[in-house]
Design brief:
MetI-like fold; Rossmann fold
C-alpha cells in the first residue's frame, strides 16, 4: 500500500509540473495542458478509427518483435552448436547495431513501400539485443550438467528445459524488457515515416499537420500505456513458461515399470562380443605429464576399480571411458553407459524423482527412492537436500538407468558408514549382471570382494596370465 501511495504522489507531482509548464507557456498550440490532453484522449476513444489504428500498430510492432525474438533465439542456439556460425553472422549483427534506422527506412520504402516497413524496422532494432543476450546466457550453461546430459543421453527438449533455460532466462528477461521499449519507439517512428494506413504513426502525423498538440500528447500517452501493458503481459508470460513443466514429480506418477526415455551413452563401434567397455591403449597428458596410459577391457558382470590418490588421473580415465574427455591417443568402445560423477550434477530445481526421470531411469522410482532416502525428501528440490542425500540420488540415477556398464567416481563421498553399507547393498542388488567400474582413494575397493584393480599407467607389453592381466587389470590376490 505504501508503494502504491508513493507512486501516486510522484505521478501527481509530475502532473502538477506539466500543468505549471502549460500555464507558463500559455499557448495550446505549443504545449497542451493535462486537462486538454485528457479531453482529446476521451474523444479519440469514441472513434472506431482509433481502435483500428491501435490494433494495426500493435500487430505490426509485435509482429516484428516476435519475428526478431524467434530468429535471435534459434540463431543463438545454432551458434552455440556450430562455433563457425558466430563469425559468419558477426558482420550482419554489427550492421544492424550501427546502421541508422531512418536510412534503412528510406531504402525499404523504395523497395517495398510502407507495407512491411514497421515489421522490418522493429526486427532490426530487437534482433541484436536478444541475440547477444541469448548468446551470453547460453555460454553460462552448466558445463558439468551438459556432460551429464551427454552421458545419459538426455533428450534435446530436456536439455533445453532443465539445463539451458535456467542459464539464459535471466538474460532473456533483461533483453525483452529493454527491447520492447525500443521496438515501440522505432516502430512508431517508422510509421510516421511510412504513414501506413490504420496506424498510430499516421494518426499522430495527421494531428501534427493540423496543429492539434493535445491530440499529439494524447497519442504519446497511448503509446506509453500500450508499451507498458504489453511489456507486463509478455514478462508475465515468460514467468509462466519458466515454471513449466513442474520441477517436482509426485510419487504416484512414478510407479510401475514404465519406458526408458533415454538409452544411455553408446559408442559401440569396434566393441568385441561379450564386452561392455573396451579401451585400447588410451593416453592422456597434461602439461607434459602423462596421467593415464592404460587399457580397459571389461566384460559383462565384471567389477573393476581404480585406486589412487586425488589428482592422479582417476577422473580423467573415467571421463575418457564415458566420452566426456577426449584421449590424446587410443580408442574407446562401449555399450550403454551410466555414471556417478565425482560431483552430484543434479538439476537443482528438480526433486529426486524428476532427476531420475530426466535420466531415463526405469522401474518404480518412488519405491526405489524410499529405500535410500527419507519420505520427506520425495518432494524437495535437489537444492534443499543434504550432501549425503544428493549423493544417493546420483547413485540411484546411475543404477536405475538401463545401461550395460556403470561407472562410479567416488560414489560414497559424504556418506557415513551405515549409509554407505546400505547404499552398497542396494547397488549390489541393482547391478543385475552389469559390469561396474569405480574409482576410489579409500577403502571402498574392499567392499566389492570380487573387484579387480585397473592401473592408471599399465604396460600392456608386460601383461601375462600371472602378472598384470589384459587391459592393465591386476588379478585378485596379487
Amino acid at each position: 500500500m505504501k508503494d502504491k501511495l508513493k507512486k501516486a504522489v510522484i505521478l501527481l507531482i509530475w502532473l502538477g509540473l506539466w500543468q505549471i509548464t502549460a500555464l507558463f507557456v500559455s499557448n495550446p498550440i505549443y504545449f497542451a495542458t493535462p486537462v486538454e490532453t485528457l479531453r482529446e484522449l476521451f474523444v479519440k476513444l469514441r472513434e472506431a478509427a482509433f481502435w483500428q489504428s491501435l490494433l494495426g500498430s500493435l500487430l505490426r510492432i509485435l509482429g516484428g518483435f516476435f519475428a526478431a525474438s524467434f530468429l535471435a533465439f534459434m540463431l543463438a542456439f545454432a551458434v552455440q552448436r556450430y562455433g563457425w556460425l558466430k563469425e559468419f553472422l558477426a558482420p550482419f549483427v554489427s550492421f544492424l547495431k550501427s546502421v541508422p534506422v531512418t536510412a534503412v527506412a528510406v531504402i525499404l520504402l523504395i523497395w517495398w513501400g510502407p507495407r512491411y516497413l514497421v515489421l522490418c524496422i522493429s526486427l532490426m532494432v530487437v534482433f541484436p539485443n536478444i541475440y547477444s543476450n541469448m548468446q551470453t546466457g547460453l555460454s553460462h550453461a552448466d558445463k558439468e550438467l551438459l556432460e551429464m546430459a551427454a552421458v545419459f543421453r538426455l533428450r534435446p527438449i530436456d536439455r533445453f528445459l532443465w539445463i539451458c533455460r535456467p542459464a539464459y532466462l535471466p538474460y532473456l528477461h533483461s533483453a525483452v524488457s529493454v527491447s520492447l521499449g525500443m521496438c515501440f519507439k522505432s516502430g512508431i517512428a517508422a510509421e510516421i515515416i511510412g504513414l501506413p494506413e490504420f496506424s498510430i504513426g499516421e494518426r499522430l502525423y495527421r494531428d501534427k499537420i493540423y496543429l492539434n498538440t493535445a491530440g499529439v500528447f494524447a497519442w504519446v500517452i497511448v503509446i506509453l500505456l500500450l508499451s507498458s501493458l504489453t511489456e507486463r503481459l509478455i514478462m508475465r508470460l515468460l514467468k509462466l513458461l519458466s515454471k513449466f513443466p513442474a520441477p517436482c514429480l509426485r510419487p504416484e506418477t512414478c510407479g510401475g515399470e514404465g519406458d526408458a526415455l533415454n538409452t544411455g551413452a553408446s559408442f559401440t563401434d569396434g566393441l568385441p562380443e561379450g564386452y561392455t567397455l573396451y579401451a585400447e591403449r588410451i593416453v592422456k597428458s597434461y602439461e607434459g605429464r602423462t596421467l593415464v596410459d592404460t587399457e580397459v577391457k571389461l566384460k559383462a558382470g565384471k567389477i573393476a576399480y581404480l585406486k589412487a590418490p586425488s589428482g592422479e588421473g582417476k577422473s580423467t580415465l573415467l571421463g575418457m571411458l564415458a566420452g566426456t574427455v577426449i584421449p590424446d591417443r587410443g580408442s574407446v568402445a562401449a555399450g550403454r553407459l551410466s555414471m556417478v560423477f565425482q560431483e552430484d550434477r543434479l538439476v537443482e530445481s528438480a526433486n529426486a524423482l524428476r532427476n531420475l526421470k530426466l535420466a531415463g531411469c526405469t522401474g518404480d522410482l518412488a519405491a526405489e527412492v524410499r529405500k535410500l532416502l527419507p519420505e520427506r525428501t520425495l518432494m524437495l528440490p535437489a537444492s534443499e537436500l543434504s550432501g549425503g542425500e544428493r549423493r544417493r540420488v546420483a547413485v540411484m540415477r546411475a543404477l536405475l538407468h538401463p545401461s550395460d556398464a556403470v561407472i562410479m567416481d567416488e560414489a560414497f563421498t559424504g556418506l557415513d558408514e551405515e549409509t554407505k553399507q546400505k547404499t552398497l547393498d542396494w547397488i549390489r542388488l541393482k547391478l543385475e549382471g552389469r559390469s561396474l567400474l569405480f574409482a576410489s582413494h579409500g577403502t571402498e575397493a574392499e567392499l566389492f570382494y570380487d573387484a579387480e584393480e585397473i592401473m592408471l599407467n599399465a604396460d600392456p607389453g608386460n601383461a601375462d596370465d600371472k602378472g598384470v592381466s589384459e587391459g592393465g587389470v591386476k588379478a585378485e590376490g596379487e
